[in-house]
Amino acid sequence: MAESFDVIVIGGGAAGLMCALTAGQRGRSVLVVEHANRVGKKILMSGGGRCNFTNTGTGPGNFLSANPHYCKSALARYTPADFITLVEKHGIAYHEKELGQLFCDESSKQIVRMLLDECAAAGVRIETGCSVERVAGGDGGYVLDTTLGRFTASSLVIASGGLSIPSMGASGFGYQLARQFGHDVLPTQAGLVPLTLSGTHSQRLQDLSGVSFPVEASCNGQSFRNFMLITHRGVSGPSILQISSYWRPGDELLLDLLPGEDAQVWLREQRQARSAAELRTVLGDVLPKRFAQRLCEAWFASKPMRQYDERELRDIATQLQQWPLVASGTEGYRTAEVTLGGVDTRTLSSSTMESRHVRGLYFIGEVVDVTGWLGGYNFQWAWASGHAAGEVV
Q: Transmembrane region positions (predicted)?
């Protein structure tokens, strides 16, 4: 005998829980099914365990999508201020780290607890360790066969996430369901992910693993200024994670190693003020000393500043501000924070997230082709898209 609900949400992550509590508050009977042993796993691990739960500067320009206008409606109707109001209602202390990024003072567990408390108050039923084996029906009547039995609903919400961090249970299940119901799925790939180096570049930098400093990374018309971290396999850090979403193998990727400086003017000043100092010493004052040393061993010939003529200084300045980083690939979904691509938004309503093909079917969160920058934007998309669907399911 099947149990019947108004709404079934597949996926107990940020978007799924927000959709469930919103629908429950409208008096809808809601079931959340989550195949993992607990809900909100990605929330728990995010922000180093403190959850970067939103960004106060969130706007459509902070997202990548084949349809860049799609996210506008949901983001406008559920803003960072709306989520902050919910956080404050639950007495969760938070702080701004940088660039509008808001984190819990204590633990990301507080955000999961808040969502669960809201779900409980709204009468939402949550089943963990529940895998969906088959979905049938459509047009306002859905039947789910699961490891916990059969459930039916008039509305079905797919909030199953993307492919990033498979160790936490990520799978392509949502994409399979999308195709089953006639939706196109745009090609997926790892986003917000460390880049790998090989060959000469790797050999020159590998033993500098752990060295970190600010750069401005540029690729395909996008630039991000923040820290870069050299790793055993390549490079990471906020600036690299950000630009990785815009980089494809073979694309030119340039780093400004002295962001905010005019390198040529600065080098001239150093030549005048410290004519006897070697280039590696001068660079070691503004860059990590080990990295400055390696630059001068492998890329520049170090000599006293007074010995450089104008052309040489100009060439060094150009390299410092347009240093080519030849990446060979990414670390893939294993360490990626998000999945680029996903369910094609051209066949979804931007105001309700409902399928244009099948009545009562909704797609929200990371499974959709909307991917945010690093810094709380992806959570805000989860809250906004979840809320948009929860208002109408």
A: none
Phi, psi of 150, rounded to the nearest 5 degrees: -100, 135
* Domain limits, the chain: 3-190+339-390, 195-330
The count of C-alpha atoms lying within 13 angstroms of the C-alpha of 360, restricted to the half-sphere facing its C-beta, is 17
337, 374 contact by CB (below 8 A): yes
Q: Residue 342 forms beta bridges with which residues?
A: 186
Among 154, 180, 179, 126, CA closest to 2: 154
Collapsed DSSP state (helix, strand, coil) of residue 185: strand
In this prediction, residues 104-130 reach a mean pLDDT of 98
Phi/psi at 361 (5° precision): -110, 130
Task: Enumerate residues 6+ apart whose C-beta is below 8 A from 347.
Answer: 182, 183, 184, 355, 356, 357
Strand 327-330 to 30-34 pairing: unpaired
**How far is the CA of 49 from the CAs of 79, 108, 189, 231, in angstroms?**
23, 5, 25, 22
| Residue 320 pLDDT exceeds 90 | yes
Assess contact for 158 and 363: CB atoms under 8 A. Answer: yes
Q: Give the Cα separation of 13 and 50 in Å (integer).
A: 16
Q: What is the pLDDT of residues 293-305, one digit of tens each?
A: 999 999 998 999 9
Query: Which of 235, 260, 389, 227 has the alpha carbon at shortest distance from 325?
Result: 235
Sort strands 125-128 and 30-34 into parallel, antiparallel or unpaired: parallel
Give residue 130's pLDDT band: very low, low, confident or very high (50, 70, 90). Answer: very high
CATH C-level class of 195-330 = mainly beta
The CATH superfamily holding the domain 3-190+339-390 is FAD/NAD(P)-binding domain (3.50.50.60)
pTM, two decimals, is: 0.95
Write the CB contacts of 138 (distance below 8 Å, at least 6 apart in sequence).
181, 358, 359, 360, 361
State how far the alpha carbon of 387 is from the alpha carbons of 4, 67, 377, in Å: 22, 20, 15
What would the two tokens of residue 243 be?
């630009």
Please, what is the average pLDDT of the chain?
A: 96
